[in-house]
Amino acid sequence: MTTKDISRPVCILGLGLIGGSLLRDLHAANHPVFGYNRSRSGARSAVGEGFDVSADLEATLQRAAAEDALIVLAVPMTAVATLLDEIQVHAPHNGITDVVSVKTAVYNEIKARNMQDQYVGSHPMAGTAESGWGASMTDLFKRAVWVVTFDHLFEGEKVSSRWVGIWKDVVQMALAVGAEVVPSRVTPHDAAAARVSHLPHILAETLAIVGDNGGALSLSLAAGSYRDSTRVAGTDPGLVRAMCEGNASALLKALDEAMVILQEARDGLAAETPNIESLADNGYRSRIRYEARSGQRRSKESVSPTITSSRPVLRLHPGTPNWEKQLIHAETLGARIEVF
């Protein structure tokens, strides 16, 4: 897949870790891309590195309108509504996607403005605990899953050819930066993200606090297991709040499930003969299944991961009869897709 498969320029609003990394990758591939960053210092740094970036939102959106660019919202959920309002004023007909980690809340903002026919949601499952332009990098999305939504297909009206084109461009953009596209509607996405993205933040914050409460000796003894399990606790607190509070309903269900498991572990440890055999065995098997699906299985002879992903692949032609059924099938399987 090359950026030639993307039919229009890309305009990225917000150049932190995700937006900035996307800008870098598209620029490196020689695809027309420009961006806006609210931080003037961040914008200056990007310009100094040779990127087409502005701190003037109105001018950036006017340019996006003139060039019919695909607009990417790469900002926290708390900033989405304001940007959508600005887009309605300055670039009302442009295709829009986003990279926000919650999808239902974004789609509600889209529907409140009747912008469904120009919007396709997305979410790259990639990142680090760092934020801002300085954290951006090339190849962040290589082999990462990039979710692309398709709820508009089920809203009772035949979708326009323009929407199909926007959907395809979002898919092609993700493929062009090395990601694997997995389709999902917003509700299943948020339920899954609560389990594998947002709950880990809750648990990492908890583990960080418990370790810190142990005092200087605990922190001095902390090694790999503590470091790895608390890594995302180093994420900016505002971003953590935006993710978790924005997906509270789905996250509560996952958290309740985790608390039942933790209570069972506590009961096992409090028994006359302490026993957490079930937790250890089931957790080990679950981790092995994840490694197989994601392509991170390690052989006993090597510490390097080998590519053995069991994620199935489905090929589809957007806009053809029954393609929405193929998307549902891919969602159910957690399959990645290729388009032609």
Structural features, described:
Residues 292-301 have a biased composition (Basic and acidic residues). Keywords: Oxidoreductase. One of its GO terms (biological process) is tyrosine biosynthetic process. InterPro entries: 6-PGluconate_DH-like_C_sf, NAD(P)-bd_dom_sf, PDH_C, PDH_N, Preph/Arog_dehydrog, Prephen_DH. Residues 8-310 form the Prephenate/arogenate dehydrogenase domain. By secondary structure, the protein is of the alpha/beta class. The protein has two domains: 8-184 and 310-339, 3-Layer(aba) Sandwich (Rossmann fold), CATH 3.40.50; 189-275, 6-phosphogluconate dehydrogenase C-terminal like domain (6-phosphogluconate dehydrogenase C-terminal fold), CATH 1.10.3660.10. The protein is 50% helix and 11% strand. The protein is built from 13 helices and ten strands. The protein has helices at residues 17-28, 40-48, 57-67, 80-90, 104-112, 161-176, 186-213, 215-221, 224-229, 237-246, 248-270, 277-294, 323-333; strands spanning 10-13, 33-36, 53-54, 70-73, 96-98, 122-124, 145-148, 180-183, 313-316, 336-339. The strands form three sheets. Strands 3-2-1-4-5 form a five-stranded parallel β-sheet, sandwiched between helices. Helix 6 links the parallel strand 7 (145-148) and strand 8 (180-183). Helix 7 (186-213) packs across helix 11. The protein is globular. The N and C termini lie close together (10 Å). 36% of the residues are buried. Residues 299-308 have low confidence and may be disordered.
